[in-house]
Amino acid sequence: MELREFRVFLAVAGEGSVSAAARRLRVSQPAVSQTVAALEQQVGAELLVRSSTGVQLTEAGTVLAAEARAVLARYDQALVAVGRFAAAGDSVLRVGVPLELPPELLPDAFAGLASTHPRTRVVVRHLSSAAQLDALRDGELEVGLLRSRPGDRELDATVVVEERLGVLLAATGDPPDPGGVRLESLAGLDWLGFPRADSPVWYDEVVAILRSHGLHPGPPAEPGQSLIAEVKFAAVSAGRAFAFAPARWTQPLPAGVVRVPLIGAPVVRRTWAVWAADSRRRDLAQLISRLETEAEK
User: Fold this and answer.
1) Residue 89 has what pLDDT?
2) How far apart are CA 22 and CA 30, in angstroms?
3) What whole-number distance in Å separates Cα of residue 284 and Cα of residue 152?
4) From the centroid of its chain, how far is CA 187?
5) How far out from the chain centre does Cα 168 lie?
6) Strand, helix or coil for residue 231
7) Pair 217, 211: CB distance under 8 Å
């Protein structure tokens, strides 16, 4: 049995549904079902009772769930116990980050890492997704937070943030509808986009969504332009453009700008933690685990 199998099984047990566990773990439903089936084959007993309303643990499943929780807890304790013996060469962990991450994601993950690997010093670099990918390939980053999953076989990745984006609009005399606006209602406004070179896959996904709702992407952003909050506010306040913004927007909005949710959540931005597939660093594994834990909250 593997720790990964235990985590999948406990997700099913906690959610009470294979499909809900798959959504939580961001893997396919067949993959979850196959993992549970493999566990049942290994233990030689049925672990779940399946019905149209979900799943329930059998007596054997209840025992395995308790043991799996104990094994995972002991694994975490082992990481804490040996973390202080990490080799000096593993003491610097370089992390690439994009703009607009949820504010609690990195501080909480870094705090958890510090508790298990106090000798690891984290160095954070703000880079676009494309620049982070180059740095990962060149060995200049240990982990990057990218807006799309790279296709390199030499890199592993997991989703750590999934955000339903709203929009920043120029304020009018009437308060915005708390229920939000439909994306197609913004036809006639330009999208204040980021340079395609910064994250080509994510850029093309956004453009495809805009066009499917009858919107024109607007003039392309100049290479090197960074869409910091001040740039978005200035462009949007003129009333001729809109910009995307996550639900947990942390910047104070100026008087001339409002944030409005999008009905139906047509634009979902995912952030992937990406690292070298052949890495054996314990502190890196711990950070990835912490980021995944934050993503499940």
Assistant:
1) 47
2) 9
3) 19
4) 29
5) 22
6) helix
7) yes
Highest-scoring range by mean pLDDT, 72-76, 195-199, 290-294? 195-199
| Interatomic CA distance for residues 69 and 91, integer angstroms | 30
Contact 152, 267 (CB under 8 A): no
Residue 268 neighbours by CB distance under 10 Å: 11
Q: What are the phi and psi torsion angles at 286 (to 5°)? A: -65, -40
Is the predicted pLDDT of residue 197 greater than 80, yes or no? yes
Measure the N-to-C terminal CA separation of the chain; round to a whole number of Å: 26
Find the range with the poorest average confidence among 199-213, 264-278, 281-295: 281-295
Alpha helices in the chain (DSSP H): 3-15, 18-25, 29-43, 59-83, 105-116, 129-137, 200-212, 229-237, 282-296
| β-strand partners of 159 | 272
Structure tokens given for 203: 């850029």
Distance CA 144, CA 257 (A): 32
Amino acid at residue number 92: V
3-class DSSP state for residue 276? strand
Taking Cα atoms as reference points, which of 147, 181, 87 lies closest to residue 274? 147
Q: Which residues contact 272 (CB under 8 A, 6 or more apart)?
A: 145, 146, 147, 148, 149, 157, 158, 159, 160
Task: Please report, to the nearest 10 degrees, the dihedral formed by the alpha carbons of residues 232, 234, 237, 240 taken in order.
Answer: -80
Distance CA 22, CA 15 (A): 10
Helix then strand then coil, % of the chain, to nearest 5: 45, 20, 35
242, 267 contact by CB (below 8 A): no
State the DSSP code for 17.
S
Angstrom distance (rounded) from CA 237 to CA 131 = 30
User: pLDDT band for position 88 (50/70/90)?
Assistant: very low
What is the widest separation between alpha-carbon atoms in the chain? 67
Instruction: Determine contact, residues 156/239, Cβ cutoff 8 Å.
Output: no
197 three-class SS? helix
